[in-house]
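New to this. Comment on this protein:
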Amino acid sequence: MRIGILTKTSRSYTAGRFRDAARERGHRVRLLDPGKFALMVESGRPSLTFKGRPLTKLDAIIPRIGARQAEISTSVVRQFEQQGVYCANPSHAISIAGDKLRTLQVLSRHRIGIPASAFVFDKADIGPAIDKVGTPVIIKVLSGTQGAGVLLAETRKMAEAIIESLQIAKQNLLIQEFVSESRGRDIRAFVVGDRVVAAMRRIAQEDEFRSNVHLGAFTEAVELDKEYERAALLAAGILGLRVAGVDLLESNDGPKVMEVNASPGLEGIEAASGVNVAGEIIEYIEKQVTFPDLDIREHLHLSKGYRVVEIPILPKSPLAGQALHETPFKEQEILVLNIKRDSIVLPSPSGTEKILPGDVLLCYGKELVLKGYIPQRMKKKRKSAKDSVPENPTQDSSAGAQ
């Protein structure tokens, strides 16, 4: 393959490891500075040049995107996507992971542990937000990296003073719960595809609450238990990342996702774990590059009247307890693509698979039929016509699941 590594720092350990690992497996590699590209946006002909010259067609790219050049670099990744080049991480996922607040907002919709957090615009909301999160409190500058811009305030008064000062300096801040039992330590789980290929615990130096390796933290290899492995995979999957460094706090309530990095460095994790993480990533790309990215929404939009929806199964749903072959889905031409059950995804489930309360069914079919299985629709109908809904929704395509 021809692989491009998008990086501003071609002499870094991580860029060098990717280059060496790719060459060891027989691939051709180019290190490319995202700032040296020019993007040509034309109807039907998206293209780009590098240092003023056309770029030889690449099979895959590995984005190494830092916070400072995130906007430019992500636009370059997006242009490669338009050309059908496989990207180790998609542009939309990189954008989400690059925004700490947005990451937490997206994760908060799912059953995954995260520290209680707040973002306030008005000075009057600072005090109530601190009270809600509790003290001590962590204050993070949203644009900070590698531990920079992360402060610990022991009291409410101290937190208010820090936040007000930083807001005057036009800094966007995140107020976050301080998990005291995890003070000065966290776990970095390195996700590649659907596996955690390596994990390490980072332990801060004495009197330091930040566990970043760049701040002198010690590292040690760690074998993740199922709960922590599941949290790391779920966090990366929710954001749409194929390669990610997921930072987890070890709280009394189980793992809490602190941050998800779309461009994690390799030096610390490879040294601590002894795992050839760069090689794992190159091997993963080899397997995936033959399957080009598809905009599934665009493709399905071509089938007028059809769509993909998620159907949540509430405890009183008539579907609960039934095997898929016992439902009217087949007659109604509804295809169940997968079933989400807690943090597990059951792909292409068989007809004997039972539907359980709490499941979320990803279905493809006729829009008018699927509407009948969405609980919110049924609630709205009940408000306008209390007795107009049939008692058994599974036997009427216009009715809703409960």
